[in-house]
UniProtKB/TrEMBL annotation:
One of its GO terms (biological process) is methylation. It holds the Pfam family Ubie_methyltran. It comes from Streptomyces griseoloalbus. It comes from the Bacteria. Keywords: Methyltransferase, Transferase, Ubiquinone. This is Ubiquinone/menaquinone biosynthesis C-methylase UbiE. InterPro entries: SAM-dependent_MTases_sf (IPR029063). GO terms for molecular function: methyltransferase activity.
Length: 243
């Protein structure tokens, strides 16, 4: 199969939206890992007074992680899938959380404008057609010194990492998703990871896009070598001038 992109991918997520949270709940540590990645942003004072952009919020799992770790932040959550966004917006949220439907390539058209103090993107970058263009746009949305956090399936580069990912997808995730009528989306899930960057390559991609202080941090549990947190920063003006 070819990878799903743009409208086809959004439509597949629309179809899966009603069952998505149930499948996520079967993933050990899913929500705790997201909170760990948010903490790795290192934002001060529980996010008090900060603007944070949640890119690719899905049904709101990343949004929930942000509100748990950064209760004082104003959070704009964005997703291209109407079905996923409807599920997210229907959940109870504290004041300061808003939801907007938009592809990440068309944020300005939807009224999503910076500067933001931080951008968090979970399970997003491997799903876009041009990740370099998206990272450049994200850098432009950040205030100088603003922080980027990416929580993503990026294999560590060992043959074992790919083998474990394939075993989990083909032995557990895909059969369950196929029974629920969402097999195409979860076949895409497997392939989108094995065809995307390794962790080292993605860290280099962030540096090329103009982020500094880039770190690639493994996540614990069964996802070790499969999923990572990446953090980076938009340089301060004097550092930009020196590049």
């Amino acid at each position: 199969m070819t990878l799903l992109r743009d409208e086809r991918l959004a439509a597949a997520f629309d179809h899966a939206a009603r069952r998505y949270d149930a499948l996520v709940a079967a993933n050990p540590g899913y929500h705790a890992q997201l909170r760990r990645s948010v903490r790795r942003l290192g934002l001060p004072r529980g996010g008090e007074g900060l603007r944070v952009l949640d890119l690719g919020c899905g049904t709101g799992a990343s949004t929930a992680a942000l509100t748990a770790v950064l209760p004082g932040a104003r959070i704009t959550a964005v997703d291209a899938s109407a079905g996923m966004l409807e599920r997210a917006a229907a959940k109870p949220w504290p004041p300061g959380v808003t939801f907007t439907r938009a592809p990440v390539e068309k944020l300005a058209r939807a009224g999503v404008r910076g500067p933001y103090d931080a951008v968090f993107a979970a399970y997003l970058l491997r799903n876009v057609t041009d990740p370099d263009a998206v990272l450049t746009a994200v850098r432009g949305l950040l205030a100088p010194g603003g922080r980027l956090g990416v929580h993503e399936y990026t294999l560590g580069g060992r043959r074992l990492d790919r083998a474990v990912w394939t075993l989990v997808c083909r032995g557990i995730v895909q059969p369950a998703a196929t029974a629920l009528g969402d097999g195409e989306l979860y076949r895409h899930l497997w392939r989108s990871v094995v065809e995307f960057d390794t962790a080292d390559r993605f860290a280099d991609r962030l540096r090329t896009a103009g982020f500094d202080r880039v770190r690639a941090l493994p996540l614990p549990g069964w996802q070790t070598g499969i999923a990572h947190t990446f953090t980076g920063r938009r340089p301060l003006p004097e550092q930009d001038a020196a590049r």
